[in-house]
Automatic annotation (TrEMBL):
Residues 134-143 have a biased composition (Basic residues). Transmembrane segments: none annotated. This is DUF2992 domain-containing protein. Residues 113-133 have a biased composition (Basic and acidic residues). It comes from Pedobacter steynii. Residues 68-87, 113-143 are annotated as: Disordered. InterPro entries: UCP021328. It comes from the Bacteria.
């Protein structure tokens, strides 16, 4: 079982972020954690990594890693593909595979949260309706 781990520290305004990348058996996944808003120095990064709970990392789903199967493309084709990607709204400001996966994970969490909140809203409306119906019955019995 071949396993690689990479740590990249990058700046995504306004935060400095630690990007944890993992490649296992040609499967790629990524997780991130916020370090701070000010630029971290060597000692701060060391403290962050020493005190960090690696079990709390939420990695994205596994994606096949096709680094080995890169095909040669001419400069013009790569340039056209880059322009096309820049106009694609989904990955307009995303610069790496890791950031694309993180963005997809964020979108999935957002969809789940919306579904849960919608279900809560429906449940609350049903409860209010049941209370109104019960009050109607109680008033009717009173007369």
């Amino acid at each position: 079982m071949k396993s690689e781990h990479h740590l990249t520290i990058l700046f995504e305004q306004p935060f400095w972020i630690a990007l944890f990348e993992r490649i296992e058996n040609d499967q790629y996944c990524v997780a991130r954690s916020i370090i701070s808003t000010s630029e971290p120095e060597g000692a701060e990064i060391t403290d962050f990594l020493n005190n960090f709970d690696f079990d709390q990392l939420q990695y994205t789903g596994l994606v096949s890693n096709n680094q080995a199967t890169k095909e040669k493309k001419s400069f013009k084709k790569r340039q056209k593909q880059t322009q096309k990607n820049m106009t694609n709204s989904r990955i307009k400001h995303v610069y790496s595979k890791a950031q694309i996966l993180l963005k997809e994970q964020l979108e999935n969490v957002k969809k789940e949260r919306k579904a849960v909140s919608k279900q809560d809203k429906i449940t609350a409306e049903q409860r209010k309706f049941d209370i109104r119906q019960q009050k109607k019955k109680d008033r009717h019995k009173g007369h």
